[in-house]
Amino acid sequence: MAQVTDHGGGVRSVEVPIPDNPLGTTLVYVVDTDRGPVLIDTGWDDPASWDALAEGLLACGTSVAEIHGVVITHHHPDHHGLSGKVREASGAWISMHAADISIVRRTRGTRPGRWFTYMADKLTASGAPEEHVAPMRTARSRMFPGASPALPDREIVPGELLDLAGRRLRAIWTPGHTPGHVCLHLEEAHPAQLPGHGRLFSGDHLLPRITPHIGLYEDPDDETVADPLGDYLDSLERIGRLEPAEVLPAHLHAFTDAPSRVRELLDHHESRLTDLRSLLVTPLTSWQLAVRMEWNRPWDDIPYGSRNIAVSEAEAHLRRLVKLGHAEAVPGSDPVTYVAV
Ligand SMILES: [Zn+2]
Ligand SMILES: [Zn+2]
Q1: PANTHER family under this entry (predicted)?
Q2: Could you identify which of 25, 85, 90, 148 might form a hypothetical disulfide with 15, taking C-beta atoms 3.0 to 4.6 angstroms apart as the criterion?
C-alpha cells in the first residue's frame, strides 16, 4: 500500500521506506511541471523502497517512466539512492549542488579500503581506543551503502530558479548537514492561502522534532579546515528569514512556522556549545568529549557506527568553539586535546 499525501498545488509526497532505520521513511516529493513530474529526492536503493516509489507514483496518476527530472537536496543514500534507477527507467536528468556532486564523484572513484584506512587514521587521531579502531582496519572487503551513487548530469546553482516549465522553484544553498545541501523554495502562493512566502522543500536541513547530524565534511582528499556547524547555523538563519508558509521536509511530516523551528535549533546548538565549553575545563580529545556529551542514550548503549557519527559531531562542535575563540588545541598533545579558553 503506497503512502501518498496530496499537499495541493501540484505537489504530492510518497513515503519511501529506509530499511533498518529509525527514521522510517524518506518523503519523496512529486512536483508537476508542464514537461512532466519532477521528483525532489528519490529514496534509499533497496527493492522494497523502489516498489514503494513505483506504487506511489502510480497512486499519483503517473509512473516512474514519466519522470522528467530529479532534484536532489543532498547526496545521502536515503535521498539520492534510487536516482540512478529512476534515470534508467525514464531518461530523467538528475541535478545536485556542485559540492555534493564532487562527493559523489569521489565515492565512485574511491575503493572502500581507502575510505576505511582514512576513517581508522582519523579515529586514532581523535583519541579513539584501539579496540574501537581495529574493526575499521579489517573492514576492507565489506561493502558500504551508496558505494556507487549515480553521477548527476546537472548542477543546482544557488540562488537561481531551476529550469522547471511552469513552476518557480529557487535553489537556496544550505551547507552544514552536507557541504552541498540545498533547500528548494517554491515561490508560489500557498494552495490553502496559509500566510507566508511560498513553500520550502527543506531536505534534512530543517526537520520537525529531530536535529540533523552535523559532523565534519569527511573527505580523504580535502585538507581544508571547514566549519560545518558554523555553515549550518548560518544556513538556518537564511531559511528562517524566508518565512515560508509551509515546510515540506524529507522526513516525518510537513509543518508551519519555520522561524520558530529555526529558533529552537539555533538555541539547541548554542546551549550545546555552552555545555561543551564547560566540559573542556580539563583538556579532552574529541573522543573523550564525545563520550561525555549528552546523547539520546548512554554512551555504552550507542552502537559502533553511531559512535563514529558521534565523534564526528563532537569534532564539528570543537571546530566551532575553536573558530569562535572559545577553545584551543593544547600544543604538543597527541592525540590532540582541546581546552576551553
Ligand atoms: Zn542527510
Ligand atoms: Zn535524510
Answers
A1: ENDORIBONUCLEASE LACTB2 (PTHR23131), METALLO-BETA-LACTAMASE SUPERFAMILY POTEIN (PTHR23131:SF4)
A2: 25
How many domains does the structure of the chain reveal?
A: 1
Contact between residue 250 and residue 205 where contact means Cβ atoms under 8 Å apart: no
Chain segment 111-143, per-residue pLDDT in tens: 777 888 888 999 999 999 999 999 888 875 555
Query: Is residue 291 helix, strand or coil?
Result: helix
How close is the Cα of 291 to the center of ligand 1, in Å?
A: 23
Q: What is the pLDDT of residue 1?
A: 66
Q: Write out the residues surrounding ion ligand 2, Cβ under 5 A.
A: 78, 204
Task: Give the Cα separation of 226 and 248 in Å (integer).
Answer: 28
**Would residue 329 count as lying in a domain?**
no
Q: Which of 44, 47, 41 has its CA nearest to residue 70?
A: 41
| Ligand of minimum distance to the alpha carbon of 26 | 2
163-212 per-position pLDDT tens digit: 999 999 999 999 999 999 999 999 999 999 999 999 999 999 999 999 99
Instruction: Compare 233 and 296 and report the one with higher pLDDT.
Output: 233
23 within some domain = yes
| Ligand 1 center–CA 215 separation, angstroms | 11
CATH number assigned to the domain comprising residue 8 = 3.60.15.10
* Distance in Å, CA 139 to ligand 2 centroid: 25
Is 68 a domain residue?
A: yes
pTM, entire model: 0.94
Tell me, rounded to whole angstroms, the distance of Cα 94 from its chain centroid: 17
For the chain, the first-to-last Cα distance in angstroms comes to: 56
Ligand sitting nearest the alpha carbon of 78: 2
In-domain check, residue 99:
yes
216: domain range? 4-105+152-264
Render 93-154 in DSSP notation, one character per residue.
Answer: EEEEEHHHHHHHHHHHHS-HHHHHHHHHHHHHHTT--HHHHHHHHT-TT---TTSSPPPPSE
pLDDT at 219: 73
- Residue 72 above 80 pLDDT? yes
Report DSSP letters for 188-239, one per residue: S--TT--SSSSEEEEETTS-SS-PPP------TT------HHHHHHHHHHHH
Amino acid, res. 114: R
Cα 341 to ligand 2 centre (Å)? 35
